[in-house]
Amino acid sequence: MFKGLWRIILYMLIILSPLLVVNYLLPDILSKNRTIYEIGKNFGLTAFMILMLQPVLAGRFKWIEAPFGLDMLIRFHRNMAIFALCLLVLHPVLLAGGGIGWKLLIGIDLPWYIWVGKIVLVLLMVNVALSLFQKPLGIKFEKWRCYHDILAPSIFVLVFFHSWFAGQDLKNPPLKYVWPVIPMVALGLLFYHRIFRPLILACKPYRVLKVKQETRDVWTITLVPPAGTKKVYDYFPGQFHFITFHRGRNLPEEEHHWTISSSPTEPGIITSTIKSLGDFTSTIGKTRTGDTATVHGPFGRFSYMNHPHEKDLVFIAGGIGVTPLRSMLRHMNDIESEKSVLFIYANSDENNIVFRKELHEIANSNYPRLSLVHVLENPPGNWSGETGLLDREKLERLCKNKLKNAAFYVCGPPGLVETVIANLKDLGVPDKRIHLEIFSFIG
Question: Which of 104, 242, 311, 351 is most buried by its number of CB atoms within 10 A?
Fold first, then answer.
């Protein structure tokens, strides 16, 4: 908790540092201007710093991500972009109302650097809109990321030129020495994240050892570490990583994030279990032994090892959401953990149960003390287990002895997760005992 807190404090101090310099180290400039004008100027300075720190939030730097989880960090990254946009929309309005005049907003005969500021505002609006409405607009993730990778550095460069030539405060020390360096650092971090680091990782590719079909449309890909390396990177059960498969054969080469379905106790290998959901994943079954892959990880905090005080656990999964829970259960089994786990696993039918045999083997062992409950929406005629959807009635009945004390780990399709979370809260389970990871918008 403390590590996360000091990172937040540092982030806020960096964002507000130009305001401290302008308003406290340069008080003579402040005294000559109106309050509304000063607020508008401060909004612009703050928005500039927020934008320049965006590559830090989205750059997958583990010392930043570790206390929060990458899913939370990326959502914060998105929300801060929206906040910066709001500040930049208000920036010229307050400057105009604070003494510059409304020509700033509606005039045509304006200095070139003012027009650059207007262009920055439009580009940021487009970038935010594409990010928020990527799916409704039908834009594939790779195409959206291409747009994002073009717009982001363009915004960094243009917003610097606008601020440098429009802001008189920036001509005074120490800002005149620091200000040009800030966008250089931001661009450097962005290029490192999107270009340099992938090239470095590609020099030491993992190799596909085995491709196993689990169900009709689910495959487990087993990877071994780069040549000359005996072990994979350290990770907690339940974490995820990014993989780019290099397969040739005219197959697409895209980076995607997948949960690590293996356990750290399985030496020399790492696996991801992937469901064919269309586009790139529809080709996952064409992956062959000997193919190579660039792997970047681990990320995320969806692991029981981050909460060692929890002894009584409830795992709830739908479909391919079983993967991080399988990783955790395999780890518990291998280390002979005596935790108590109720695992409720929902699927459309019997043929879609992933890891069915292994889950029953773990349930029949002593470690952990696992109770396994399958819920099938379309059961066969001889099915004697739970049927239908995983609704509130089932949750209350199956978890009646767990609601007051157990920790709940939920993973699956968005609809199932939203329903389960809403029902758990309605049944009195507090947020602090509900763990989940939201994988949307992880860039």
Answer: 242
